[in-house]
Write a structure and sequence with these properties.
heterodimer, B: 122 residues, seven-stranded mixed sheet, 0% helix
Chain lengths: 107, 122
């Protein structure tokens, strides 16, 4: 099975900073990559699908890029409400594996 | 507004069984695959299972294959996850989630339920 590895595992940044989270697949998954945001005690929320397509209602400061095995989630200007854990997920075929998560905090 | 609601969680002893339900509303349930994912306390998300829209294909993660069974009743807009031979490491919040693609089984999750907690403890 394809493994999904995120880095870093945790991240602390200041309000207004540009933040980048990386997700690497152990084999190519084309553009079948999604990002989810999970705030503490809440249900995961879809942010981005097909590598770079923004889900309806998601602020434009979130963006995604990449292809094949290497992907990134970028927050262009970090806001206090972005404190959460972020997960990437492959969905080209089963299993729909998640990355281990990246915990984002405000410095 | 489209919604998924899980139920059936609880505290059970190791080796026992439990059935979780996921009931959908406000969308055409029978044309979407439904996934189960879980999250152990303080841990990340783990994909568990998928059932195809018509219920004729089921898929499982390695950690649950042979112990968990997924089924659906489209007349009741409900998917079931039957958990057998429960272990302490099965303790988690179990979420059901809807496939984004019509008739597909290779898509992202565009709708999640609120989750139901399963605790396996003696």
């Amino acid at each position: 099975d394809i493994q999904m590895t995120q880095s870093p595992s945790s991240l602390s940044a200041s309000v207004g900073d540009r933040v980048t989270i990386t997700c690497r697949a152990s084999q190519g998954i084309s553009h079948s990559l999604a990002w989810y945001q999970q705030k503490p005690g809440k249900v995961p929320r879809l942010l981005i699908y097909s590598v770079s397509a923004l889900q309806s209602g998601v602020p434009s400061r979130f963006s995604g890029s990449g292809f094949g095995t290497d992907f990134t989630l970028t927050i262009s200007s970090l806001q206090p409400e972005d404190v959460a854990t972020y997960y990437c997920q492959k969905y080209d075929r089963v299993p729909h594996t998640f990355g281990q998560g990246t915990r984002l905090e405000i410095k | 507004q489209a919604q998924l609601v899980e139920s059936g969680g609880g505290v059970v002893q190791p080796g026992t069984s439990l059935t979780l339900s996921c009931t959908a509303s406000e969308f055409t349930f029978s044309i979407y695959g439904i996934h189960w994912a879980r999250q152990a306390p303080g841990k990340g998300l783990e994909w568990v299972s998928l059932i195809s829209p018509e219920g004729n294909s089921q898929f499982y993660g390695d950690s649950v294959r042979g112990r968990f069974t997924v089924s659906r009743d489209n007349s009741k807009n409900t998917v079931y996850l039957h958990l057998n031979g429960l272990r302490g490491e099965d303790t988690a919040i179990y979420y059901c989630a809807k496939e984004a693609n019509l008739w597909g089984i290779a898509g992202y999750f565009d709708l999640w339920g609120q989750g139901t907690l399963v605790t396996v403890s003696s």
